[in-house]
Amino acid sequence: MILILGIIIALVGVYIFYLKFQRKTKVWSEEIEVANDIKIPIEFMSSQRKYYGGHGFGWGGGDDRSSIKFDYNSISYSHKGSYFLPYVIKLFKDNFYVVSFDRTNMSKIIFRFFKSDKKGSFKEIKAEEFPKHLAVQNRKLKDTAVYYGDETKEMMKTLNPDEIKNTLTAKMWFQLERGTNYYEMPSDISLDFLKSYKEKYLNE
Predict the structure, then answer these.
(1) Tens digits of per-residue pLDDT, 32-77?
(2) What is the pTM assigned to this prediction?
(3) Element (H, E) at 195
(4) How far apart (Å, rounded) are the C-alpha atoms in residues 16 and 50?
(5) Which pLDDT belongs to residue 81?
(6) Residue 178 pLDDT more than 60?
(7) Which among 127, 39, 124, 53 has a CA at the least distance from the CA of 84?
(8) CA dihedral in degrees (101, 105, 108, 109; nearest 10)?
(9) Which residues touch 9 (CB under 8 Å, ≥6 apart)?
(10) Distance in angstroms (rounded) separating the CA atoms of residues 174 and 158
């Protein structure tokens, strides 16, 4: 009886170990407006464990791996990494800038900032090196807001402080201006701050 139980436990262990390496991968393309009147197709890849038990089982999370890939002006650009979730991809002075939402540690979610080089690679930069006027979400936008905090295409065009106070864009602004990490921020950013930031960096 003990032998049979041992075999069953061993088989379950092998099966769980096998499941750890099964992954679900998705590849798709989006046309992104990276600057005024400049739209380019960008290929995205997202991959994570198909089955995982979470931290309670000691396996960790879904082991997210993501990438972007695109061509512009005869240069092939690409970047890949863990928990690389780009919400901003902008072109400025022949360089691409990216803001990624990093959820590696769910209790300490942060923004990460990247800049391209002439060879098409992306290197992480400090928040203070990111051009403040580029910090406007241009991916994962909805046509119509369903829940509080949903970002819509119209909201990112008008940037009305009353409407964007709980968006990722508002929180990017707060970090760029105040140096506060996402996980340390209030749920709503103050209207006075948003009006001031918009006046300083986004009003032409």
Answers:
(1) 999 999 999 999 998 876 655 543 343 445 567 889 999 999 999 9
(2) 0.82
(3) helix 191-201
(4) 12
(5) 86
(6) yes
(7) 124
(8) 10
(9) none
(10) 18
Which is nearest to 103 in space by CA: 177, 190, 168? 168
Instruction: List, in sequence order, every residue forming a beta bridge with 43; answer none if it has no partner.
Output: 29, 69
Of 35, 12, 45, 143, whose CA–CA distance to 94 is shortest? 35
Q: Are 32 and 42 in contact (CB under 8 A)?
A: yes
For the record, the structure tokens of 201 come out as 């960096």
Which residues sit opposite 27 in a β-bridge? 45
What tokens does 99 get? 């803001």
- Tokens encoding 122: 């992306």
Answer whether residue 6 shows pLDDT above 90: no
Distance between CA atoms of 143 and 131, rounded to whole angstroms? 27
Phi, psi torsion values for 88, nearest 5 degrees = -130, 125
DSSP 108: S
